[in-house]
Amino acid sequence: MEIGTLFLKSNSTGIITFSELDWITTHQSNFTRLEESIAIKLGRMIDTGSINIGCRLKS
Predict the structure, then answer these.
(1) Which of 3, 35, 36, 51 has the fewest CB atoms within 10 Å distance of its CB?
(2) CB atoms within 10 A of CB 16
(3) Please, which residues have CB within 8 angstroms of residue 35's CB and are 6 or more apart in sequence?
């Protein structure tokens, strides 16, 4: 998984899962500066309510 792909998926669906958040926290020590800024942006979007924590249902 890559943080950029995760950002695009979360931004388009409006949902981020607990497992995706867990992946971010376990890999954040290896992030580049750009990846860190994307993770911060995701956090801000969660704080503002643009992205909700939940689950995606497969269609």
Answers:
(1) 36
(2) 24
(3) 3, 4
The continuous run of DSSP H or E covering 41 comes out as helix 33-48
Q: Which residue has the tokens 């580049």?
A: 32
The residues spanned by each domain of the chain are 3-53
Instruction: Yes or no: say if 18 and 54 are a contact pair by the CB < 8 Å rule.
Output: no
Residue 18 amino acid letter: F
Q: What is the pTM of this model?
A: 0.86
28: its two tokens: 């954040």
- Each residue of 8-59: pLDDT tens digit? 999 999 999 999 999 999 999 999 999 999 999 999 999 999 999 998 777 6
